Structure formats: C-alpha cells, structure tokens
Amino acid sequence: MPQHRKRPSPARRGWVLFGTAAALWLCACSSSLEPGAGPEFEQEPAGTPVISSGQAGVPMYPLDPGIYTDAEGYHLFYTTPFCLAASGPRYSWDPANPGACDVDNSITSIAYAFSGDRGLTWEFRATPVILPGNSGFDASKIETAFPFRRGDTLYLTYSAEGERDGATFTLRYQIGLARLPLGGQSVRTALMDEGRQFERRATPLLPYDLRLGRFDNNVQEPSVVIGPDGIVLYYVGLGLLLPDESVEAPGQQIVSIGLGRAELDAGLNVTSRSSATLLDGVNITEVRYVDGAYHLFGTTPGTGEFHEGNRIEYSTSTDGVTWAARQVILQGAVPGFDAWGIMAPTVAVEPDQLVVFYTAFGLEERACFPVPADGRFGKPVRNGAACLYATVARSVAARP
User: Fold this and answer.
1) Using CB atoms within 10 A of its CB, is residue 92 exposed (0-12), middle (13-18) or buried (19+)?
2) What CATH number has the domain bearing residue 80?
C-alpha cells in the first residue's frame, strides 16, 4: 500500500522539499564549461512559464520535468508535493480554501500533464501516476521520472529514496522502474484515468554501490536511450565520503559527481555499468539520441542556496561514452520568474526543432508563510526572509 508520511507544519519548519539535487548543497563542485556552438534556444513564450505553481488549478511546486512525445501530443511527468484531501493526494492546493487539502501532510511523487500544442498549454491529472510503496528502496519518495515506451507499454524510470534496516536512508537514491500496460489505449486516455497507476518493479533497476571510492554511492536522474547501442540507461552518480551513511550524517561530504552509463537487456535488466564517471561535474541530466549522435542536456552546479545560479548546459557524443566540452545554452534573467536559477532540462524532438522544458525558479522578497488567500505556495529561502517559486519554462531551437 502507498505510504503517506506525516510532516511538520510548513509554517513552523519553513517547508523544505528535498529534491535529488538537494544533496548538492554539500558539494563544492566546479564545472569545466567552454563557449561553443550549441543549439541556440529562445524562450517561448518569453519571460513567462508554461506551467505556473502554488495556486488553485496548477501544481504546488513542479520540479524535474520529463517528457514523452507521440502523435497525440506531449506527455509530461514531473515531481511535485501532493497535499492530502479526503479523496486522496492532490497535485494542487488552493490558498483561499486551505482546509480542502492538507498541505501539512504531503507526499512527494510524480504527476502527469498533457499538451496538444507542443507544450504551450496543459491539462493536468490531479493524482499521482505512481506512489511510494512498501518495497523498501522507494518507500519514502519517488521523483525525477523519465518516460519511454516499448510496444504497448509505457515505462517510467525514476529516482527513489527508501529505507535501510527499517529506517529512512535520507537522500540516498537508487533508480527504479515502473510500467503501465496501455492495452491499446492512448497514453493520455490511460493516464487521465485517475484510478490507474504505474506498476513498480519491487527491486531497483540500478542500485547504489556502497563501496568506498565508487562514483555511484548514489544513483539518480535517469534517462533511457533506445538506439544503435541497444537500451542504455544514463544517470548521475554521486561519490560520498561516507558511502554507508545518509547524506545528512555528521561528516558526510560529496566528493564527486558525474555521468554514468548502464546497458540493459531486452528484459530491462542491467548487464553492465560504469566503473567511473564518463563526464565529471554534470547534474540533473537528460540524454537523447538525435540525428546519429548523443545529445546531453544538463544542469550546471549552483552558486548559492537551493539551485541558485543553476544554468542549462549541453554536450554531444558520437559513441555515447566520450563527450565534448560542455557549453551553457540557457540561463535565467527575468526577476520573479527564472533569475534565481534554471535546471533539469527535458527535450522533445520535433522534425524541425528541439523543444526543451525545464524548472525555472523565481524569488519574491517576502516570507512564504502564512500564505494569504490570494497568495501562492512556495519554498522559504534566505533563512525564511524570501520565498522561492518553481515553474516550468519552455524554449525552442532549430534541430541540429
């Protein structure tokens, strides 16, 4: 059965949403970036999100989008908190009617939205498409999903936080796999049925490696390429000073971060995995195979608190193993919308263009809580003096 964990009141504790990249608060990572001729993206629409947040009818706090496209349209999977209503978890919270959904008792999981106009407008599913369960490794939280399809089945890979020895293993991620048999239905029809959820595999698709000196003591942020090299899973690996402890353990440090690669067989089982990083310093990545090459879209290290200063970067590879120098291709500039930072790109490949969606963070210089009736739900930063909002932005570029 899904597990709902009671959380302290956000008004008292300053509501913290732990994302996969939250662990990087401990990391003094650097990134070797060079200017170059990456895709020239332009924000569309400029200066405004395509998915807003924190009010009635929109997600509470959308993060880490992952997109699947087909002839029907765009299918977006994103991480968000779900508040608990009498009918179960809901993706949206109304500050004018706070009693309808208990924001003090929320879970973090994966939501779904559909667009028939290349991501300019969206229709939302109210409930999660997958929930944490009792399988151990994903018992606490599910996030950062990447969708792909094989035949009549839609799959999600995802980052999962779970339990170890009966206790939550805080911010220690493994990669899970779930499936949704479509039975001849369209993806939108299947997922807009609030009674349907993905079926989780009981064991990790890719477990962490707890040995000292490994780069993958944490594994997270998956993306799957089905291409000339078969089925390949890309992911971000974190090496830890104390690989057998939680990220919050005293003395814990992140000593490395980088891109990993695993090969999967036809049954979606791992047959081999990286022994070292393929590309150092990358975070919250997605890899696509387009026009005979691998294209990596990732997130630069931040310069401050909770993704402050994050930008979107890009690299290419002809073999999926050796990567060119990374180039920054997008950065935020609009106060209140994306100037705080941008992260977690996901790419829709069209015949004429690339359409990238990503999390955009905007700041207001006011406390988040209490939320007024005409206000907006956000995350406290700067010791509670300011409020950070997450939205989903859209940019386009000509196809390389």
Assistant:
1) buried
2) 2.115.10.20
